[in-house]
Amino acid sequence: MSAQDSCLSLIKYLLFVFNLFFFVLGSLIFCFGIWILIDKSSFVSFVGLSFVPLQMWSKALAISGILTMGLALLGCVGALKELRCLLGLYFGILLLLFAMQITLGILISTQRTRLERRVKDIVMETIQNYHAHPEESAAEESWDYVQFQLRCCGWNSPQDWFRVPSFSSNESEVHRVPCSCYNSSATNDSAISEKLSFPHLSRLGPPARPGHNTDLCAVAANSDIYSEGCARSLQKWLHNNLISIVGICLGVGLLELSFMTLSIFLCRNLDQVYDRLARYI
Fold it and tell me: Is the pTM of this model over 0.85?
């Protein structure tokens, strides 16, 4: 066997092994998504959160797992069986994904101001319509999760909540905000701790009840709430994690380029392999 044949065999098995790894990873992601979808209570008790819109994330994980498994299967079979059509399709899909990622990065960098304005409009609309339609609470639960995790309140400040109809009361002029704005680490008030135990805002509370939550949890704005708006907290989070985000994006891009290079190199040299096999036959 010549050096070129050895090199091609090495590339073939490298491509097969790497894609086999991603096939297993995709199957794990798919199973994880299905587990969340079927057994929400176990997942909630495992992670300690019950107010994330789990159904949306579980479907996204399941679909991502299926796509990863399909792409990896193309690479595995194409490399192992040396099928040019599958290798070409594998290369084409990777090239399309890479082009989409580059396009998305360019759009985010050039349309950042418009994107920020659009995100602000969506958040302000969610805040203004908070609990207006209890049967459609996914966006509200997501925003509660953001406030709880980033330790912030409102988009610009807690005052964004003061004009929300669901928190207005004719009996009192005290402004109120959602319980996700409450800074539970600042006090040991047992009464507030009980309020924070309602189904979709609790880390330590019981598993989420089936159906949509109709309870509205609110605290007075003059209590211990987060004083910073989530726009500022989100900027801080992005700044603190910028290196990690860029590193992950570059790593994924380089991995895709490597797979594309291996697949196109193997695909272009299959003719030479077939010619040598024909001579031996």
Answer: no
